[in-house]
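Project standup — Tuesday

K.O.: blocked on the structure for the chain from last sprint. Re-posting the sequence here as requested.
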Amino acid sequence: MMRFVEILRIAFDALLRNKMRSLLTMLGIIIGVGAVIAMIAVGRGAQVSVEAQISSLGQNVLLVFPGTTTRGGVMAGAGTGTTLTEEDAQAVKEQCPAVALMSPQLRQGGQVVYRNVNWATSVQGGSVDYFGIRDWRLESGDFFAEQDVRAATKVCVLGQTITKQLFELADPVGETIRIRNIPFKVVGTLKPKGQNVMGQDQDDIIVVPYTTLQKRLLGHTHAWGFMVSAVSKGQILFAQQQMTDLLRMRHRLGPMDDNDFTIRTQTEIAEASTATTRIMTILLGSIASVSLIVGGIGIMNIMLVSVTERTREIGIRMSIGARRRDILLQFLMEAMVLSLLGGMIGIFLGVGGSSLVSRLAGWPTFVSPGSILLAFAFSMAVGIFFGYYPARKASTLNPIDALRYE
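H.V.: unblocked you, prediction finished:
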C-alpha cells in the first residue's frame, strides 16, 4: 500500500512539473467524456419522452383495427375495412378472460361552437370504459354514464385544449356547445395529457358516447375498431392471443386465411416508436466516443515524449534498486491520472452541457447514472490502453544506456 501511494505521489509530481502540457493532454479526454455524456443525455431524453407519451395511451392497452394486413398479396393495412362489429367488441369483453375493459373506438373531425367562439377538433366516441383504458382523470364534473351510451345521449367530456379555447378560465360543466350544429351538454373536463408520439395534442379532443357519434354525427353503425385493457401487464400477450382466436372463429376464417383485423399492443407501439431514438442515442454516443480515442492517442504521444525526456531519471531509479515493474507502474499511473482527471472534469462538463442544451434548445435530456459510470470506466480504459505502451517502453530501457543518455 505504501509503495502504491508513493508511486501515485511521484506520478502527480511529474504531471505538475508540466502543468500546461498535462492540461492540454487532458483536454481530449475532457471533451470526449463531456460529449459522450451530453449526447447520450439528449438521446435518452428523447427516448424517455417518447416512453412517457406511450404510457399516456393508458394502462396495458391493445388496439384492434378492422382490415387485413395482406389481401390478395397486397398490403392493405389496418383500418382499411369494416370487418369489426359491435358484437365482436362485446364478445371480446365477455369471452376473453385476460381482457379487463373494452371500448369501441370511433373518431370524427368536427367544428365546435360556443357562443361566438368556434374551434376545429377531434370528436372521439367511446364507452364508459374508454376513460379507464386511457387512464384519463377528471379536472371537473363527471364522465358520462352507461345509460348515456345506451340512449345515445348528447353529452360530452372536453379535453383541456378545447376547454381553454372555448371557455378560457370559466368552468364549462353544465354549458351547451354545438358540434356540427348539434347541441351537446358538457358533463365534465379531463386533466391534460400533452402530445402523443406523433406530436398530436391529446387534449384537443371531445369524448362522446360512441352510440351518439354513430347516430348523430356519422349516420351509420359501423365500428372502426375498439381498444381494450388487459388485466395486467403480464397478461397483454395472452389477451392478444385470446382476441385473435375469438375473432378468427367469429369471422369464420380458415387456417390458411389472413386475419381481417389487426391487433397492436402498447409494447409494440412503444418498441416501434423508441427504435429511432435508440438508434439516434447509439449514433450520437459513437460519434462522441471518437473524441475519447483521439484523447487517448494524445496521452500516448505525450507519455512517449515524457519517457524520452526522463530517460536518465529512469536509469537512476533502476540503478538504485527500482524494478522494471515499478517503472511500468509509475508511467502507467501517470497515464491513468491524466485520463481519470480528464474524465472527472468531463463528467461535470457533460452534465452541465446537457442541462444547458435542455434550457436553451428546449430539448428533453436525461443524464443516467449508467452513462456517467460508462464514461468514467471508458476514460480509465483509455488511460490503461494508451498508457501501457509508453510505460512498457520505459520499463524495458537498459539502465546503462539510460544513464548514458544525453
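K.O.: great, moving the ticket to review. The first strand starts at residue 61 and ends at 66. The chain has two domains: 2-53+274-404, 106-223.
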